[in-house]
Design a protein that fits this description.
Layout: E1 4-10, H1 17-27, E2 33-38, H2 49-55, H3 59-70, E3 73-78, H4 87-99, E4 107-114, H5 122-131, E5 137-145, H6 148-151, E6 152-153, E7 158-159, H7 162-176
Parallel strand pairs: 1-2, 1-3, 3-4, 4-5
Antiparallel strand pairs: 6-7
Length: 177
């Protein structure tokens, strides 16, 4: 059976390094059907209880959850803003959680993060790893790539550090097992 992968970066940037990492990770799942999305296609007003009561939940939140539901597995890449999620992702997540707490619909997940520094966006990755099971995420693996500029060849679209590449390949295998 061919796995249907939904891959996206939880990033505000149109030139996201986390997107390049997610795209690479998805290519490691040979034979999989890959759907990538841009969270900016799901941009909604900032969540506020009063807004929800007045206008309801935006259709875009339902559309995003339909994409999650259509996938067999998820690969999500996190940019770290001040130790947490980006505003764009947090708002999308907040709206989706108002539809119901099972946002991730028990889908197996690989969570990734990268940064140009030595932390590799590890704080946001650890936060997501702990929080996503509460919202019905089956986190199978997590992967952080520090020093993106030194360890990822953006032109070739791949990790150049052999140990980190092997670590990501193992994480993808664990996701698909």
């Amino acid at each position: 059976m061919t796995s249907k992968i939904l891959a996206f970066a939880a990033s505000n940037s149109s030139v996201s390094i986390n997107r390049t990492l997610v795209d690479y990770a998805a290519t490691l799942a040979e034979g999989a059907e890959i759907t990538t999305l841009d969270i900016h296609d799901y941009e909604m007003p900032i969540y506020r209880h009063d807004r929800e009561e007045a206008d309801g939940i935006p259709q875009l939140a339902h559309d995003f959850l339909a994409q999650v539901g259509a996938a067999d597995v998820l690969i999500i890449g996190f940019a770290e803003h001040n130790g947490g999620y980006t505003v764009a992702f947090k708002n999308l997540f907040d709206w989706c959680s108002r539809i119901g707490p099972a946002v991730w619909q028990d889908k197996p997940m690989l969570l990734t993060a990268t940064s140009t520094g030595q932390g590799g966006a590890g704080r946001v990755l650890a936060f997501a790893e702990g929080a996503f099971p509460i919202f019905s995420g089956d986190v199978r693996a997590a992967f952080s790539l520090p020093h993106y500029d030194e360890k990822f060849d953006a032109e070739a679209g791949r990790i150049t550090d052999a140990d980190k590449d092997a670590e990501l390949r193992a994480a993808v295998a664990k996701l698909l097992a």
